[in-house]
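Ligand-bound model needed. adenosine-5'-triphosphate.
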Amino acid sequence: MDFKIAVIKGDGIGHEIIDETIKILNKIGKKYGHNFKYTEALAGGAAIDKTGTALPEETLNICRGTDALLFGAVGGPKWDNLPGRDRPEQGLLKLRKELGLYANLRPAVMFDELRRSCPLRGDIVEGGLDILIIRELTGGIYFGKKYTESDKAEDTMEYSRHEIERIAHIGFQTAQKRKGILTSVDKANVLETSRLWRKTFEEISPGYPDVTLNHMYVDNAAMQLVYNPKQFDVIATENMFGDILSDEAAMITGSIGLLPSAALGNNYGMYEPIHGSAPDIAGQGKANPIAAILSSAMMLKYSFNLPEEAENIENAVKKALAKGCRTSDIAMKNEKVSTTEEMGDIIALSL
Ligand code: ATP
Ligand code: MG
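Prediction:
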């Protein structure tokens, strides 16, 4: 089958990690008989330099003409002195909004081979960890009415039933493809938005009889993530709670260079590593391409419905780690350090 992919490499290590990701996608395409067709587009600092704006209209048009977007990272010291609204990061925020990407999926998977980087006690994470956090991305307190005067400020948390319904469906559908356990996290004992959130999840639940829905207060969820993380399969939560819990979950699993993400909306998905453009190591072959490569596996799974191919990539990453391949961010003292390209090659060989 043919699949159209928009590619924004962006700035800093974006180029290096996306080049390795495309190497992996091409090999998967060959193996399974798919044709991935890439169209490169500009965003962030590279777009500012070339066109004067962080998100050129042409980039949006390219994205709209494709099935999914593979994104590297944007930003860097070169553009740090620009006013806030002109910075490269604005290109990313605008892109998500323009493409209607309202669900942020952040898997926190702990690789057995890297268990030493987990700050939790060994018995708590025995047999590994595999949690998927779904964060609502376009509503809640970040986008509600705001108000400031000299000695008083206000942020308003707002959610409509429609916004909750669409993220709930993503939560249930994602749980269906996994272990069938969905934990909805809220603060329904205190917040009106949380009561509507909980009620809406309950109303949608009968449509997914194969998924078990649990509710948990956010303070308890934060505690349970470190006390008994293995009880979780899929967690769905509102914008700010998701922001906090997904960082907590990410930290449990290890390096920032390992974690992928997907931002999903109406029939479109954007896939990117959770890390930034890492200007301190850009161009030196030090970046870990695994987060970007696993983001492409999410693309195969969620945008193209190719779960077997996605699993093949995930297994190849595990095999490369089992073979001892380590970029500098995950290498222990005295371990041989591989370059970005070497890591990509070993993962490709393991497909
Ligand atoms: P942003 O604001 O764009 O999220 P940031 O300021 O949070 O960026 P990152 O670019 O994510 O920062 O980098 C944080 C640290 O992690 C840096 O020291 C960077 O070198 C390191 N880092 C980030 N990504 C990787 C990677 N893929 N491989 C190795 N190290 C990385
Ligand atoms: Mg960051």
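Residues 13, 73, 75, 256-257, 275-278, 280-281, 287-288, 291, 329 surround adenosine-5'-triphosphate (ligand 1) (CB under 6 Å).
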